[in-house]
Amino acid sequence: MSTTSIRLYTESPLHEAAQILLPEAQSHYLANVMRLAPGDTLRLFNAIAGEWRASVTKISRKAVALEVSAQTRAPAPEPDCWLCFALLKRQKTDLVVEKATELGASVIQPILTARTQADHVNLERLRAIATEAAEQCERLIVPEVRAPLHVEKLMANWPERRLFIADERRSAALLAPSPGPSALMIGPEGGFTDAELEGIARTPLVTRVSLGRRILRAETAAIAGLALLLAAEA
Ligand code: SAM
User: For ligand 1, what atom is nearest to the CA of residue 211?
Assistant: First the structure.
């Protein structure tokens, strides 16, 4: 019987004495990869219930059964910050989703622009990457990963939310922490077109920002930008 550092996201209700039968992938992970045995404990979490300790009660060929015992962390608000980034090739997109999750983004919105290099994603895979990153970095919330959207369409319905657009070519103030609902937008490797930048900048609540003197690769810009924006909430 051991207390493991394993942490899994679950949508099942979490409360004392709750009985949970894990889905196939998580059951396989616990039984065959991590080789847990009855009595071993792990942590489960979701945004509604927070984090709870649970112990393995039964391992069958099909599923692992758990019993929830005590709450280890109460639900807590997390930063309300969106990352809107021009879709990149697969590996770089995976990296951005993982790092944006670790840095605290609440919504991850891939965008399509004139110079975007990719036009579709495997959403299920990106959502699995975000879930695993949230499990690993001890968040209580798994960010929402949305389907790619053309930047014009996104801006046509932009909500009441501050948007910082990272603009590497014009003199702008360095991005600084900004409390409250916010969003960061990062362009493609080839940059936004002038027309796109003008279109975006016409939307209320939009501010052009710099990420420093060096021209960062798009994935680096997303990571550096989120780190700057959310520094106060780290
Ligand atoms: N092709 C562009 C160029 O040469 O001007 C560079 C684009 S950069 C590789 C990709 C995106 O990262 C940009 O659209 C911008 O959003 C962001 N970015 C990179 N470096 C930046 C900086 N120093 N300040 C602001 N944004 C930056």
Answer: 24
| Chain segment 14-45, per-residue pLDDT in tens | 999 999 999 999 999 999 999 999 999 999 99
Find how far residue 77's CA is from the centre of its chain: 15
- Please check the confidence at residue 170 and state whether its pLDDT lies above 80: no
CB atoms within 10 A of CB 36: 22
Task: Specify the residue for token string 């975000």.
Answer: 130
Residue 234: its pLDDT value, please?
A: 61
| Nearest alpha carbon, ligand 1 atom 3 | 191
226 class by beta-carbon count within 10 Å (0-12 exposed, 13-18 middle, 19+ buried): buried
Three state DSSP letters for 164-233:
EEECCCCCCCECCCCCCCEEEEECCCCCCCHHHHHHHHCCCCEEEEECCCCCCCHHHHHHHHHHHHCHHH
For 184, the token pair is 């960061």
The residue to mutate among 168, 197, 217, having the most atoms of ligand 1 within 8 angstroms of its beta carbon, is: 168
* pLDDT for res 216: 97
Task: Say what the pTM is.
Answer: 0.95
Q: Letter for the amino acid at 165?
A: I
Q: Which of 189, 216, 217, 223 to mutate for ligand 1's pocket (most ligand atoms within 8 Å of CB)? A: 216
Which amino acid residue places its CA nearest to atom 21 of ligand 1?
Answer: 168
Interval 55-65 mean pLDDT: 94
62 is written with which tokens?
């099909």
